[in-house]
Design brief:
6-stranded mixed sheet, about 350 residues, Rossmann fold, elongated, alpha+beta, OB fold (Dihydrolipoamide Acetyltransferase, E2P)
Amino acid sequence: MSEPVLDIRNVSKRFGSVTAVDNVSLQIQRGEFFSLLGPSGCGKTTLLRMIAGFEETTEGQILINGKDVAPLPPYKRPVNTVFQHYSLFPHMNVSQNIAFGLERKKTPKVEIGKIVKDSLDLVRLSGFEKRRPSQLSGGQKQRVALARALVMHPEVLLLDEPLGALDMKLRKEMQVELKNLQEQLKITFIFVTHDQEEAMVMSDRIAVMNAGKIEQVGKSCSEIYEHPRTEFVANFIGATNIFEANLNSGNGERDLQMPKGPAFAVDSHRNAGAVKFTVRPEKMQLSAQEIAGRVCLPVKVVDEIFQGTNTSWVVEYHGARYTIIEQNSKVVEEQGRFSRGDDAVLSWNPKHTVVLE
């Protein structure tokens, strides 16, 4: 693999007694769309601000193209940032906002005019040159902020929850536009978000953060979802079911023994002992009888929730509640087969069991 465009080495940030970022190391390749995903307060924005130079690191190094950027102020770093609230100059029109950084760099006026025109074409805002930010919609303001950042040709474009202020429909449209734009320009994007779906739609890779640490970096978005390493990641990326069991090993095989349920073979490198495992709701099935070759648990139906394309079943097993999601197209002929209080069998293929760290 080529040298990473961004190399974060054992970076920490402390504000007094509070550790916002705790010994984080990441390598991000040139041309990647990389997302930092996590709940509010997990340290993702602080990490982004340290890359940009708005915060100093307490410990560690941040290298861009192999060069430590710690001594450099923000305006001398080969990065640019797009914020959630756009930070457009209200007294300037669209063209003036986009040209601002170029003028600061003493770019010739003739070149500025061409660059601004090309950037407006790129973000589909030709004809909006003379409008002020107050005359633009949220999505249009976001495009202006993107154009203003991109005309500086950054090595890395940092995006701090840039779609957070948009309504849901526009947000989904901008997700597609952002991804297409990144693929067209082949610039490294580092995208901060707390929205799991947003990260999975756009990213090449995702790092999940929690309490200042990196919980997991996926080689792909599907790896984070299908093979979460920790209980936090399993719960944060989509809905899931968490079970407790004992992991046994012997004769080169490993199996999970549930406290009040069956034992079944699993593929896990965990040490033997008490563990937790997860199964995604859509990997499960609810039936009237046990199904051969599947892990089967006797459950009681607690609730049925119709969700249009899907139906969610809530069931109870030894005092704990679990969720099954079934596509209505698959079970339409059987709708109504269970009611609240009915006995049923919850089952899944053993290969869909993921033992957590």
